[in-house]
Every structure is written in C-alpha cells, then in structure tokens.
Amino acid sequence: MATDRFVKRRNGVLRKLKAVGADALLVTNFTNVTYLTGFSGDDSFLLVSRTATVLISDGRYETQIADECPGLDVHIRPQKIGIVAAAAKIAARAKIANLGFESNSTTVDESEGLRTALKSAELVPVSGLVEELRLCKDASEVAALREAVTQAEKGFEVLKATLRGEQTELQVAHDLEHSMRSFGATGSSFAPIVAVGAHAALPHATPRRVLISDADFVLVDWGADGPTGYKSDLTRVLVTGKISAKLEKIYRVVLNAQLAGIRNVRPGARCCDVDAAARKVIEDAGFGKKFNHGLGHGLGLDIHEGPRLNSMTEMELKPGMVVTVEPGIYLPGWGGVRIEDDVLVTKDGHDVLTSSPKKFDEIVLS
Amino acid sequence: MATDRFVKRRNGVLRKLKAVGADALLVTNFTNVTYLTGFSGDDSFLLVSRTATVLISDGRYETQIADECPGLDVHIRPQKIGIVAAAAKIAARAKIANLGFESNSTTVDESEGLRTALKSAELVPVSGLVEELRLCKDASEVAALREAVTQAEKGFEVLKATLRGEQTELQVAHDLEHSMRSFGATGSSFAPIVAVGAHAALPHATPRRVLISDADFVLVDWGADGPTGYKSDLTRVLVTGKISAKLEKIYRVVLNAQLAGIRNVRPGARCCDVDAAARKVIEDAGFGKKFNHGLGHGLGLDIHEGPRLNSMTEMELKPGMVVTVEPGIYLPGWGGVRIEDDVLVTKDGHDVLTSSPKKFDEIVLS
Fold this sequence. Notes:
2 copies of one chain form a homodimer. In chain A, helix 4 crosses helix 5, helix 7 packs across helix 8 and helix 9 packs antiparallel against helix 10. The first copy, chain A, is about 35% helix and about 20% strand. Chain A has 2 domains: about 130 residues, Creatine Amidinohydrolase, Chain A, domain 1 (3-Layer(aba) Sandwich), CATH 3.40.350.10; about 220 residues, Creatinase/methionine aminopeptidase superfamily (Creatine Amidinohydrolase). Chain A is of the alpha+beta class and about 375 residues long. In chain A, the strands form 6 sheets. In chain A, strands 4-3-2-1-5-6 form a 6-stranded mixed sheet, with helices on both faces. At the A-B interface, helix 5 and helix 8 of A face helix 5 and helix 8 of B. Chains A, B: This is Putative peptidase. Chains A, B: One of its GO terms (molecular function) is metal ion binding. Chains A, B: Its EC number is 3.4.-.-. Chains A, B: Keywords: Hydrolase, Metal-binding, Metalloprotease, Protease.
C-alpha cells in the first residue's frame, strides 16, 4: 500500500519521541506534515502519538486530504476556530500528558496559544526531530528526486537547443521554467539563476534584462519542483561566444574539484572532509579565496536541507542522503564558474542522479 | 528620495513601540523587513530603534542590499555566526534595554536563542505591529499594486486570445504565468486556478490534465507578483461552449452580489457589513448556503493579509486599504462561479483597480 511509507515515517517519530520525554509530537512545519502524511497542501498541523494520529486542517482541503491521505484521521476545524485552538482540542481529547511541539517552526504566539488552551498537558519543545528523519531518503523519495532531475535536465536540453544571443537572461530563465513544466514539473524548485559574464560572479545572481550575447558564457543554476514536492538543483556553464583560455582553465579546475568532491561521497565520510577534498583542488590551483561558500547541501522536499557539506559540519554521510556537490570559482568583474550535481549516498559509495554533460567540449555551444 | 517612504514606515514602528513598552523592535518576518527597507531578499532581520536601524544579513546579499537600500546600516554576519546570535550582538551594541520581537513570526527556538545570547535586555513579545502598519497602503504601494494588476490583466488577455479546447487546465495555467512574466511580473502571485465545469465548484481547485473542451465554461483565479513584491488577485469565468440558462442565471446573481459588495467599500464601513451586503444578494436568490467562504481579503506584499472581509470582522475600512471582493456560488457536481476584483478604499469611497470585462456577454468566448 502506498500509505505504508507514511506509517513507517510516523513510527520513526514515535521512536525518537521516547528519548525526549514526550508522548506526542505536534508537527507545525508544513513540509514535515507533507513528509509524514503525503498531504501536499499547507495550513495544516499533524498530531502524532501512539494512540492517535490526526491531521488538523480546514474546509478548503477536505477533498484533497481524502484523495491524498486515504485512511488518515482528519479533523476539519470550523472557520471560527484557529488552527492552534483546534490542535489543543485534539491533543486534550487524546489525553496527551507531555506534548512535544516543533520549537524550530512553532512561533512564540502559537506556543503561548497552546499553553493557554491546553492546561492538561506539559509542553515539551522538540527541535529538528522530523528534519533528522528526513536526512535519509527512502526508495520512493529517491524515485521522486530522480523524476525532478529528469524534468530539470529535459528543460535544460530545450534551453540549449533554443538559446539565442538576442534573448535576455530573464527570458531564458522564464522559458526554462516553462519547459520544465511541459515535462511535468509543477515549477522551478527556486528562482533560476541565468547570468552572463561578470554577473556570474555573484553566487545568487538575479536574471536581468541583459542579452545572452553580451558575454561569451552563461551560468545557469536551476532545478525542478516535482509533482510530489521533491526538488532537483543543478548548475551548468555554457560557452556561447569566444572560447577563452582563462575560462577553460578555471572551468577545468572547478570540474576537477567537483569530481574530487563526488569521489569522496560515501557512507562514513564526514561532510567537512568531502568539502575539503573539493576545496583542496581549487586551493592547489591558487583560487582558494575565490571559492567563498560551502560545497553543497542536502535536498529533498526542501531545496536546502541537511546535511550541509561545508568546513564546519562533522556529520557522517549515510546511505540515502542526497547532497548537491557544487564548487565554484568567482572572479569579480570577470565572472564565475560553478558546476553542480545531485548525489545519492549508497551503501557502498554514491550514485550521481544528474547527468547533464559537463566536459569542457560538451558545454561549448558556439 | 526613494528611501523616504521606508524611513516614514520605520518612524511608524517607533511610534507604535512606545505603546507596548519596548525601545526597539527586532523584525524577523522577511516580508515585514521588505516593507520597512525595500530589501527584496530573505534570511535577514531588521532592528529598529530610535538610536539605531540595522539590517542583519549575510554575504550572499551584500551587493543587493547596497543596491536596494542605499544609506541603510547593514551588518553582514560571518558564516559561522547564526542570524539570531548576530541580531543579539547588534541589539547589545545598541544598548537596547527592552527589546520587542515579532512573536507572531519568531520561532520558540529563535526567542530562546535571543534570551540566551542577550542577557542585557528584557524581551517583549510584540504581535502584528508591522502588519497593522501595512493595512493602509501609501501611494508607492498603490502604484505597485496597479502594476501587478496590469500584468495580470495583460496575461489574461493573452489567455483569452489563445484559449483552445485542446489545451488542458494545466497548460492554460502554465501559459498564463509565462504571459504575465512577459509583461514584467516575476511570476504568479499564487498557483493559478484553472478549472472547467464541476471542478470549478472547489474554491481551491488545482489545475489538472483535463481538456478545456470537456466543459462549457472555465473559472480562472490568478494574479501577478509584481517586480517589487506587490500582488494582484482576480477571478473570471469564461464561457467556452454552450451558453446555459443556469450558468447565466448564477453568473448574474454572483455579479450583482459582487457589485453590491464593491458599492459598500468606503471609509468607515465595517468589514462584516461589506460581506453582508454581497451575501444578501446571494441569499435572496436562494443560494446562501452555496457561498461558503468570506467575501474577500486584503492584499499587498502578501497575497492574503488584513483586513478580512467576512462575517466576523468588525474592523472599519480606512483609506489606503486594498481588498479583494470575490463572492461565489458553488454547486457540487455542476460547477462554480466566482468573480473577483481588487478594490482600493479611497477618501470618499473606492477605486476598483482591476478592469477585466465581467458583463455576461463579455465573458462568452464561444
């Protein structure tokens, strides 16, 4: 049954709850609610306990929940009762004595509202419990991530096939999202970056009304939001004009750094060591200070989630984790190169989910 | 100077702060930060006090902040220091004794983090202060809303000009967003609803892979996200097949209800009374139970903000408020009709910002 995986995930919550001394968890982060139920809407909380599991939502979502979460207990609150008061009522009815709540997403007003409405229970702040479960993806999640990768890569093939010098960065970004949607994505997983020349030196460049022909290369950082909310995230550079020796040199350094990073992705490797392996290639080439961000981040239902691949994170990688590997070299005034793939940690190493061509001769369109 | 309006808004915060006994406000809601500074990014807090106004952000946004907020004091935190710790440092440096913080957007973990890092100050929960200022739009905001309306309406004209029976709801929704972008929108202000026939009976229908030709009419609920973040929100029904007497009857009732609602939008009118004026028309026609949501909501930087036009809200309208007026009649199994416009409260009445044709003969495309 399709719902089995959600039951399994909620059982994971229950196991972890014991350790924090709570007999239920009120899940207030909407993405965590999706992870634990399959419900894709928002404005809904989930109560998880041994005796009761209840999705607390409102009338707008009644039909959708019945479709997406067959068999799940649902409380549809009336318009006049807020979501916090409704959650307190459900927790009281379930006779919860120690109610855990997600203190990293619950607002101060919401927690005060709970405290006032729920005199019968102790409130226990619980931080990042569901996020920890989400670190390692199950088979259905990996399949959904692969789907989002395919949508992104097919969209990028259209971009390459249609790219013209008289398009602006902004038009290319908009057309890319439109293409990904034609392949089944609900949209972009984040606002795509399309940046030519010097603008590519900004890691978070916003597309402008500037022509693609205004420079000799363009950096594209994009991803698809798949139908069940799982996301992809890639970066490629395309050469659209003159091939310069400087670009080729920097590109090869970044590619070698990226390949070194990917080679180090395996169970037991510390995040900081994967970062260091890629960083060393860039440092050895003399560009260490020009790679001013972490190597990558986890991705799944959120475009940025754990684990973080950077110099501070000592967490060890485990099978099922999915991370981006995206080193870059940025030279203000000249431009930047970043190459990004999505990598699954497997039992005995890794599996690169993305496959858009990235050898230097493959990125030259001119 | 373009920054004047932001100084004016921050002065509004200072005036309201006195009443709550705080000498500074830490703004943690990113949309409120945008409202008070013009900075369009996220992951940034703002400290507002009489002696210091500081935007707390990180390296990714340094260039963008310099562009968007000339003259504003900025603290760029290093990667290793979190945003809460950075904010505490800035508040301590400014010698704040009573630090207000937005308790309706600050998480429990963030407020605990502040408490730990900032021993020198009392923390004062402050709820909805900036949201209250945002209720009444100034001239620049109204201009931005008008821009978002134009982008949405131009996109809809393209939709009408290109609509074909062999398109799916989903394709029409995607093409609509693409069109709005070609007119300068950054995207949709929310996922557009395109729903034919019976599906239009769901107030929050998700577009499907179902052909436009599968029914005789289509409901479109859409809006544009303008370049500075202000949003529009409209609904129209289009007749694409047979004109039925039932549809025409229901349409005319909804339109009369909507016009009655709009006529009642003026300074001093209570929100509940505006709702009642529209609702009465639908009730008198015998469809009262088929209009199962509030009449409308405020809009601005958020697609849903105050004031709410519904039967429970007694707030009086004031000049500068902008609300949607969107009654509907929903008949499960048959379909639904909703008509929505965006209306500005003026000194002596109202100004309807939207102008897409809505007379019955104007919505017949077949």
